[in-house]
């Protein structure tokens, strides 16, 4: 795999000389495929058999691989077998499991509290997302070479904190401690089956085992292959491969501590990867001597020695090179044994779990300091994060639109996009919303007043509008589109025959409170100071805004100026007639102006 590397093979007596040396440019950057072809070929018929046959196939494979005997229980229940196992272990073991579960639970709860639901305004309504857990969680814990009750805690506790209604654990040949861990983790049941058959049972259901919505947890290559086969049918956390650890060390690090951490990683699996990046060859040699000494007395030295053959040491000129190597590898675990560990930590981009400082041993992460130990491997930390409560949560988006008028532009855009994509059913569905908008076009007003509360009047109202022109047409279109009725246009004679106006009698309620706009000339004839007696202070022209409340009609029309004066009087403004006798001027007190400014002007 590393043809240019110097590799010292492990002898039959398990003696160890040194980790192979790699130059920085020899460090591999290629991701490892987490699913081996031979494992997929072996797992596929097992998964298909359990999917189609259910419990009979599950029992058949479990008995073939020595996990069950004929007549054995397929499910261990929480209040029976799991509780009995909890009571059978020592008090010291119970205390250890309880404390570890509590630390994991505390960290997971903090993660859960960091995620919140949102709601944001959109045109004509609002949108947001809610967070909901999956109902049924399946948690796998390896039980082959070493039983791992810590993985039971990491997976089941996290699922329960996320809010899953049912948690099922699968672990082959479980020990009493594994069953006790499932009990303190609040798992509902445990199936004493492993491998691809267990993954298939959790995904599709088998007899008393209900189908799960999410499957998490590490396993051997057959478990990983089975997870890849059922992903899409259920959610999975990741496709994890052999464990990895990269130690970055400078001259301040202890060779003995670094060697201990590398061996802790190596004893996981013969395929594990322990790696060291350091600044001097002298430090690398010191670590090699410690590895040889500690390996000689390690009970698991056979597995660890084989894994050390996969490992290597890279001597770099600076920590900048170490950062580059880390980000190229994106390994599962990264330990920083350097003097300025926090400063270096901020520079790293890709890793599954980071352990900052010599005191933050990777084994503390394995055994329940809080963060989860189920992490991405094989370079996939560039794309995935580790197991957490978020693995069991679904983000569900929602939206509400109850004002098609205000959402007009958004709806028009949706209609146009449907046409651009050739999806005319989409365009028609959007057009149906446009038709329901008040003006039939979906064009929104400049200001949405649909949520405002207005006082209304049932009197017949009069609006003074120019006879011709675009503004007059727009005003009439607006009144008509708003569902208003207007009739009896009456010509109002202008001074000198100029600027004839329409007076439209509008049969609908209208707000009493005025909305005011600043003008420097007569609002109708546009005459300036000599024609209109403008006050020296700010002059305003009162304009009304209508609502969609119930309609009422009266018989006698009123001049627009008279209605405006009455309206202004009701609002506390002092009205004075313009010299052209076709509008009403008002000097609005400061308090009235402030109140009026909160009302949006009508279109």
E-strand count = 22
Under CATH, the topology of the largest domain can be stated as: Rossmann fold
CATH architecture of the largest domain: 3-Layer(aba) Sandwich
Portion of residues in helices? 25-40%
**CATH 4th-level superfamily of the largest domain:** Nitrogenase molybdenum iron protein domain
CATH class of the largest domain: Alpha Beta
Trace the largest sheet across and list its strands.
1-12-11-10-13-14
The largest β sheet comes out as: 6 strands, parallel
For the terminal residues, how far apart are their CA atoms?
Answer: 74 Å
Using the CA coordinates, give the radius of gyration.
38 Å
| Count of separate DSSP helical elements | 19
Strand content: 15-25%
Low-pLDDT residue spans: 1-13, 441-454, 492-603
Q: Let me know the average pLDDT.
A: 80
Find the structural class using helix and strand composition: alpha/beta
| Inertia-based shape | globular
Provide a descriptive summary of the structure in words.
The chain is α/β, with parallel strands linked by helices and 603 residues long. It has 4 domains: 37-118 and 128-236, Nitrogenase molybdenum iron protein domain (Rossmann fold, 3-Layer(aba) Sandwich), CATH 3.40.50.1980; 241-386, 3-Layer(aba) Sandwich (Rossmann fold); 403-444, no CATH class; 461-596, no CATH class. Helices cover 36% and strands 18% of the residues. The strands form 6 sheets. A 6-stranded parallel β-sheet has the order 1-12-11-10-13-14, with helices on both faces. Helix 3 (78-88) crosses helix 6 (176-184), helix 7 runs parallel beside helix 8 (221-230) and helix 15 runs antiparallel to helix 16 (424-435). The radius of gyration is 38 Å and the shape is globular. The model is unreliable at 1-13, 441-454 and 492-603 (pLDDT under 50).
